[in-house]
Write a structure and sequence with these properties.
Pfam families: FtsX. The protein is of the alpha+beta class. It contains 28 helices and 21 strands. The protein has four domains: 262 residues, no CATH class; 140 residues, no CATH class; 226 residues, no CATH class; 134 residues, no CATH class.
Length: 839
């Protein structure tokens, strides 16, 4: 019976319009829209990857070999299962034009490339015409490399010992996204043109890809299983069009999950606004609630009445959020896709929208039950006596259990939907901890301002005393502003601290002495001459060299490595391998011993200690490493410290020389020299040995920093949504305090205060609250930044003051503007009319 009565009362009250619920709707809609938009963009990218999987990969399937070409038997099998096979080779080299040199990622292609998709060139012309042999073989390169080297179409450049003519600029390659991260811009030439370059020889660092066009009825699962079985010990890496760009797909999935969790932070901020809006609305309904209770309405009827109203408005807010989250990516699709390295298909995807709706419903329930439950338990007499809403006790224990169950459900669903349990739990814990800290800080700020208002500091400063008294007094907006604006600023501060520290960890926290260049592909016959040429320059301080091979760790104690050690990064792809008869001077052994200089027994290996522990390896374990298509079985003789942070020559595996006897290989070198001499050294060494590739440490750092900048920008966009929601809540808090300010202004005018003094008091109040929220955000952001850098990045953390200062300034400014915006109305009210209404 009570529910039907509650429904009827709720329907009648809703007829009065949405007055008092605009902030409620805005907060809920913004939070849901942010999550829905991120999910829609992620779904669009996943759909694009699925639709264009063959073009991104370069074929229906791909067989890739490390530092060798497929044998005749292997090529025959690949041809037997396909209608076409395209052979390409990929490696790093130096493009040379006069005195200009640039690191480039070279792709040598055959006549069938690309099997799928189109290469876009400027000026537009078919790729085969751009690469055809005329007086010289042709080549195309990305504009950034051409600009860096001062090249125009028609100019010539050299790769190794072969000269090429630049026929066009490479605007887009269809399989670029599947190629992964490269240290240099792309150059494309023909395999035939590379034959006389001296760059593709045994032992040099290159990869070959065989892209397959399969019959329409081909079963990808069956073919993949057959390939893995046939080439299990041949160093093959197999991919098909279902996972054309695995690195991009993993990145998009993880970034999308992270941004959804950042969106949940925004929804939590919006929840605070929802709770404040409901509380303010109920304050305005005090007389109505008191009248209903006097007429016999039970507490449950009151609770149901306003829960129905809030439920209807929640659905409206979620509908608005879903519409925005679906339509904004659709409208901005062309702009977003133009900035993506992969294709995307933007449309309406029900999955992400439903996920956002579930988050919205749970968040709304969590934050509205508390004020509704409190209103239910207030007596009618108390309501009539206390216009501000009566007591402030906690809701009944049953309601607290419901709120807790809803919160657990929200966190559990976030972990399930995102697929990253630890990150979801850490985010939930961070939000809860931040809210707790903010609540404590709001309480401390109130106490502090109350005491300051009575101190000597406030004497003779009426505006300041009034502002401090209002911040420290009961019933103000201190808690609402600190919680809402503080949480939004905390998320943004944390992003700023993490982004700055990550960049510092790469670019500034380098070792005191770092190499200027890495040189690769130094042939055995070139090593002595290379060292002599380099040491002729007095600016060279030191050169370290080591033999260089690449191998894939395929088995541990006879079992497939991934079955034993899981999906560890050492097992994903090939790793550097070297050999040494003597223990290097900087090699620190943690277990075992080095082999004798003239050792000629069963092959041995010294393994990196930290990675060995993560893989669960022990002394005496047998490892099978595929090198150039041949399995090498070695026994672990020792573990040693490997510090990749020193930017020197570091290998996961160092073998005894007899393990790699006869294996073709090259050498790697690190050159330490004065910065002013780097250009001179590069010209001298590249001129003498054109096949050797030089990788500048500063250029590599710049490429990584650019990638991190894009990630930080995407994260900042997500954090900005949280901050915008916080500003909406701030506006709601300011609007909710309008009635209180009207009364304050009337009283102050009556006792002789001028409008300027009253406005100054209101402005100081808002600035104090904003600055306090900013200071709390700095503390929270610093703690979050320290936690991420220390426990996730495993790097040092240094407080970054510039972004912190901007956070405080932004918080104070935002709060000041919102406070001033809602102060003009109270100042214009006539004291007599206001005070008469309180009689």
């Amino acid at each position: 019976m009570s529910f039907s009565v509650a429904t009827r009362i709720a329907r009648r009250e809703l007829r009065a319009g949405l007055r008092g619920f605009y902030i409620f709707l805005a907060c809920l809609a913004l939070g849901v829209a942010a999550i829905a938009a991120v999910g829609s963009v992620r779904a669009g990218i996943e759909a694009g990857l699925a639709r264009e999987g063959a073009a991104i990969l370069g074929g229906d399937a791909q067989a890739q070999f490390t530092y060798r070409f497929a044998t005749e038997e292997e090529q025959a099998w690949l041809a037997s299962i396909s209608t076409q096979v395209s052979e390409t080779v990929d490696f790093r080299s130096m493009a040379v034009s006069g005195d200009e040199r640039g690191l480039t990622q070279v792709r040598g292609v055959d006549d069938l490339y690309p099997l799928y998709g189109e290469v876009e060139l400027s000026p537009p012309l078919p790729l085969d015409q751009a690469l055809e042999m005329r007086a010289l073989p042709g080549g195309v390169m990305q504009p950034v490399l051409a600009d860096r080297m001062g090249l125009s179409v028609g100019d010539t450049f050299t790769l190794g010992t072969q000269e090429f003519e630049l026929r066009a600029l490479l605007e887009r390659e269809p399989d670029g996204a599947g190629a992964g991260f490269g240290l240099g811009p792309r150059t494309i030439v023909t395999l035939e043109g590379l034959e006389t370059s001296g760059l593709i020889t045994q032992g040099t660092l290159f990869e070959t890809q065989y892209r397959l066009a399969l019959p329409a009825d081909a079963d990808l699962d069956t073919i993949a299983a057959a390939a893995e079985e046939r080439f299990a010990d041949a160093g093959l890496r197999w991919r098909d069009s279902r996972n054309g760009a695995p690195g991009v797909a993993r990145f998009v999935d993880r970034l999308g999950a992270f941004l959804v969790l950042v969106g949940l932070s925004g929804l939590a901020v919006g929840g605070l606004g929802v709770s404040a809006a409901v509380r303010t609305y109920l304050d305005g309904k005090i007389e109505t609630i008191a009248t209903l209770k006097t007429l016999g309405a039970t507490g449950s009827t009151i609770f149901q009445t306003y829960l129905i109203q809030v439920g209807v408005l929640t659905l409206v807010g979620i509908a608005i959020g879903i519409a925005l989250g679906a339509l904004v990516p659709l409208a901005l699709g062309p702009i977003i896709e133009a900035r993506l390295p992969v294709p995307a298909v933007f449309g309406i995807y029900p999955g992400p929208l439903a996920e956002a709706a579930v988050y919205g419903v749970l968040t709304a329930l969590i934050f509205v039950i508390w004020p509704l439950a409190r209103a239910q338990d207030i007596r009618a007499a108390g309501l009539f006596r206390e216009i501000d809403g009566g007591g402030r006790k906690l809701p009944r224990f049953a309601y607290l259990l419901v709120i807790a169950a809803l919160a657990v459900s929200l966190v559990g669903l976030a972990a399930w939907f995102s697929g990253v349990w630890m990150l979801a739990l850490a985010t939930a814990g961070g939000i809860l901890g931040a809210l707790l800290i903010l609540a404590i800080m709001a309480w401390l700020i109130r106490i502090g301002c109350r005491r300051l208002s009575q101190s000597r500091l406030a004497r003779g400063r009426p505006a300041l005393r009034l502002a401090l008294g209002a911040v420290g007094g009961p019933g103000g907006e201190t808690a609402s502003v600190i919680l809402s604006l503080g949480l939004g600023l905390t998320v943004l501060a944390a992003v700023g601290q993490i982004e700055r520290n990550t960049r510092d960890a790469i670019s500034q926290d380098l070792p005191e002495i770092a190499p200027a260049y890495f040189f690769v592909d130094i042939q055995n016959t070139q090593l002595d001459g290379f060292l002599s040429t380099a040491f002729e320059d007095p600016a060279v301080d030191r050169i370290d060299t080591a033999p260089m091979l690449r191998g894939i760790l395929t088995r541990i104690n006879g079992q497939p490595a991934k079955d034993v050690a899981g999906d560890h990064w050492v097992l994903n792809g090939d790793r550097g391998v070297t050999y040494s008869a003597l223990q290097p001077d900087d090699a620190i052994l943690t277990e075992g011993a080095w082999w004798p200089e003239d050792y000629d027994g069963p092959p041995l290996v010294s393994f990196a200690a930290e990675e060995g522990e993560e893989l669960g390896l022990s002394l005496g374990d047998m490892l099978t490493v595929n090198i150039l298509g041949r399995d090498v079985e070695v026994e672990i003789a020792s573990f040693r410290v490997v510090d990749f942070g020193n930017m020197g020559i570091n290998f996961i595996m160092t073998m005894s020389p007899n393990a790699l006897a006869g294996a073709p290989h090259t050498h790697i070198a690190t050159l330490y020299a004065e910065e002013a001499a780097e250009g001179r050294l590069l010209r001298a060494l590249a001129g003498a040995y054109p096949n050797i590739t030089a990788i500048g440490v500063r250029d590599a750092i710049a490429r990584v920093s650019d990638a991190l900048g894009g990630l930080a920008a995407a994260t900042s966009y997500g954090a900005s949504a949280t901050l915008i929601t916080g500003f909406v809540v701030l506006i709601g808090a300011a609007a909710a305090g309008t009635r209180r300010r009207v009364f304050e202004a009337a009283v102050l005018k009556t006792v002789g205060a001028t409008r300027g003094r009253i406005l100054g008091s209101f402005a100081l109040r808002s600035a104090i609250l904003g600055a306090a929220a900013g200071l709390v955000a700095i503390l929270g952001g610093a703690l979050a930044g320290w936690g991420v850098m220390t426990f996730v990045m495993e790097a040092d953390y240094v407080f970054e003051p510039v972004s912190a200062f901007m956070i405080v300034l932004g918080g104070a400014t935002a709060s000041l503007l919102a406070g001033l915006g809602f102060a003009l109305g109270p100042l214009a009210a006539r004291p007599a009319r206001v005070l008469r209404s309180k009689d």
